[in-house]
Amino acid sequence: MEWRDEGIILGTRKHGETSAILEVMTRAHGRHLGLVRGGRSRKQQPVLQPGNRVDLLWRARLDEHLGTFQAEAIEMNAARLMDSAVAVYGLQTMAAHLRLLPERDAHEGLYQTLAVMIAHLDDADAAGELVARFELLVLDELGFGLDLTQCAATGTRKDLAYVSPKSGRAVSREAGLPWRDKMLALPAFLQRGSGLRADPAAVDDAFRLTGFFLTRHVYEPRGIEPPDARAGFLAALRKHHARGKAIAGEDAAREIIT
Predict the structure, then answer these.
(1) Are the C-beta atoms of residues 147 and 80 closer than 8 Å to each other?
(2) HSE of 132 in the Cβ direction (CA atoms, 13 Å)?
(3) Which of 12, 92, 154, 240 stands 20 to 30 A from 231 (CA)?
(4) How far apart are CA 103 and CA 48, in angstroms?
(5) CA angle at residue 107 from 95 to 160, to 5 degrees?
């Protein structure tokens, strides 16, 4: 058995004295594992880092075997991402979400989205929006997608402000007003084609929304906890936002003084 594909490295773990088991998200073969002989060598270690995009050759005697990988670098992203706690936790969070999917099931859309995410993940101002959108896509791929396109009660596509926790469908501000205390907030930037950017409060609302449905449909039924990386990512985001707010306050004070 043999195939060639490109993939993004999600993680590695040691195997024996010199080898490593590589976990990748591939374009055509889904999330896949394989043994890299000599993967702990000085030559291979920089290549086999999370976030790097690689060309892969996989071989095995039978399709169900672990098999072996030969990996060559296409795009070295790891060093850039390692400089940002937001990027590191963001990548770990997305990798944890991809592990919710069956191994070796193709999800080309998720692969392409992951590649776009990695290109911008070190921009902490954009990372929150990107990972929240990724969580929505994972829910969709798992069969629990939310309908955020029109109001469940009236059919309108305007002024959508809430999501029903029961149906996972959007609700307009007017229709949802009597039940607003029981609804989940729908940040405007998550609506398709909005073109809006998110402030920190909107990002928090987005993760509260996706976290609710991930817990209900995925974590609780499987008897698992949310990944620690997700909490780390949110904490790193809040720290970044707090730092940005403090810097903005200092700049405003200087302008007043001068």
Answers:
(1) no
(2) 27
(3) 12
(4) 20
(5) 80
Distance in angstroms (rounded) separating the CA atoms of residues 21 and 243: 38
* Furthest CA-CA distance within the chain: 73
How far apart (Å, rounded) are the C-alpha atoms in residues 2 and 57?
A: 7
- Would you give the DSSP letter of residue 147? B
H or E segment and range at residue 56: strand 53-59
Nearest-5° Cα angle at 113, 82 to 233:
40
Report pLDDT digits (tens) over 17-76: 999 999 999 999 999 999 999 999 999 999 999 999 999 999 999 988 999 999 999 999
- Nearest alpha-carbon partner for 184 in 136, 142, 223, 248: 136
Q: What is the pLDDT of residues 141-180, one digit of tens each?
A: 999 999 999 999 999 999 999 999 999 999 999 999 999 9
> Which tokens go with 26?
């591939």
- Which own/partner contact pairs does 194-200 have at CB distance under 8 Å and 24+ positions apart? 197/129, 198/128, 198/129, 200/128, 200/237, 200/238, 200/241
Q: What is the distance, to the nearest Å, from the Cα of residue 249 to the centroid of all Cα atoms in its chain? A: 31
Residue 59's beta-bridge partner residues? 2, 68
Determine phi and psi for 88, rounding to 5 degrees. Answer: -65, -50
First to last CA, the chain: 71
**Order of strands, edge to edge, in the sheet holding 160-163?**
170-172, 160-163, 184-185
